[in-house]
């Protein structure tokens, strides 16, 4: 697997595409993201759109899966019928979306997955994303730094079946399970990447514990911010670590709310996915099958490294 740094993505590769855009054939590319109800995916869609416009000669057909596999499946099928030149998709479910994407591959439509991979479709052109296992490991290492003598941990897991949820959870456990005598998961429960559910699940967990945990780790910022709301309402000082580096989460880190969030460079993923697909379509260049960016933990000390810091109010 190859890991690309964010700084590499907009460089010579993109410049060469822009220079040849006027002579290159026009393309129609369909994009499908899990739900534009999540700010993270709204940002990814904007970056997909901006990169397509920058390269030129690309018509981007934007679709919203609305967090429903049947809707995302129907959008992929419609794109195939429409005769698009390629598909960029973040599948809602790593397994459930496999049949629709196999249908696209069988129809000769190149598919690039982004952020979330899909299982069981060997003909996928490429996957561009963050190494979510490393992101989860960054969360785990931060916990050991904050609590070198050990900690009782609440783990808010993401949507079951979504590859980032699976990988981030694996990463946290990769680090902490090696020291299970010191680091104990007192509760682990999905909150489906949703803020309201993050709040309700946290409230229920806290009510069921004899004493508050030392730290809460969450598989995304929405759940982390939901948990923060509950701890603040209960006047509990519990460090909370999110994931995604949303502008609201960055503001919370800056202002002393969240302890940290994990930056996975979603804009870099979006730009990389468009570049990969367009270079294949226009120049017949076979890409690396897996292109991963390395996430980093963002705290007050290095908040200047966050991709979306400029959006923070």
Short descriptors:
313 residues; alpha/beta; four-stranded parallel beta sheet; 42% helix; seven-stranded parallel beta sheet; disordered N terminus
Which helices and strands appear, and what pairs or packs with what?
Layout: E1 2-3, H1 12-20, E2 27-33, H2 39-55, E3 58-64, H3 69-82, E4 86-89, H4 98-106, E5 111-114, E6 126-130, H5 132-146, E7 151-157, H6 163-176, E8 183-190, H7 195-208, E9 215-218, H8 221-233, E10 240-241, H9 247-254, E11 261-263, H10 266-283, E12 290-293, E13 296-298
Parallel strand pairs: 1-12, 2-3, 2-4, 4-5, 5-6, 6-12, 7-8, 7-9, 9-10
Antiparallel strand pairs: 11-13
Helix pairs in contact: 2-10, 3-4, 5-6, 7-8
Please tell me about this protein's structure.
This protein has 313 residues and is of the alpha/beta class. Helices cover 42% and strands 19% of the residues. It is built from 10 helices and 13 strands. A 7-stranded parallel β-sheet has the order 1-12-6-5-4-2-3, sandwiched between helices. It has a 4-stranded parallel β-sheet with strand order 8-7-9-10, with helices on both faces. α6 links the parallel β7 (151-157) and β8 (183-190). The model is unreliable at 1-23 (pLDDT under 50).
């Amino acid at each position: 697997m190859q890991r690309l740094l964010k700084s590499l993505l907009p460089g010579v590769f993109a410049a060469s595409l822009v220079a040849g855009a006027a002579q290159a054939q026009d393309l129609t590319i369909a994009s499908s993201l899990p739900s534009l109800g999540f700010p993270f995916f709204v940002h990814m869609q904007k970056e997909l759109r901006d990169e397509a416009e920058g390269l030129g000669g690309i018509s981007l057909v934007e679709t919203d899966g609305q967090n429903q596999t049947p809707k995302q499946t129907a959008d992929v099928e419609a794109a195939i019928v429409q005769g698009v030149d390629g598909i960029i998709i973040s599948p809602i479910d790593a397994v459930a979306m496999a049949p629709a994407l196999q249908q696209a591959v069988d129809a000769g439509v190149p598919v690039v997955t982004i952020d979330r991979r899909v299982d069981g479709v060997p003909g996928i052109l490429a996957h561009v994303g963050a190494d979510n296992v490393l992101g989860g490991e960054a969360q785990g290492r931060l916990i050991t730094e904050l609590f070198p003598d050990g900690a009782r941990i609440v783990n808010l897991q993401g949507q079951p079946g979504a590859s980032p949820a699976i990988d981030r959870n694996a990463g946290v456990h990769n680090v902490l399970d090696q020291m299970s005598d010191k680091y104990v998961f007192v509760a682990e429960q999905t909150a489906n990447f949703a803020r309201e559910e993050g709040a309700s699940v946290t409230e229920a967990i806290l009510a069921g514990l004899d004493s508050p945990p030392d730290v809460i780790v969450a598989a995304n910022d929405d759940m982390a911010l939901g948990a923060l709301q509950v701890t603040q309402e209960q006047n509990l000082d519990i460090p909370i670590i999110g994931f995604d580096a949303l502008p609201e989460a960055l503001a919370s880190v800056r202002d002393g709310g969240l302890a940290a969030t994990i930056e996975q460079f979603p804009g870099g993923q979006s730009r990389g996915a468009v570049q990969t697909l367009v270079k294949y379509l226009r120049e017949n260049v076979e890409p690396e099958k897996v292109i991963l960016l390395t996430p980093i933990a963002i705290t007050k000390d290095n908040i200047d490294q966050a991709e979306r810091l400029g959006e923070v109010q």
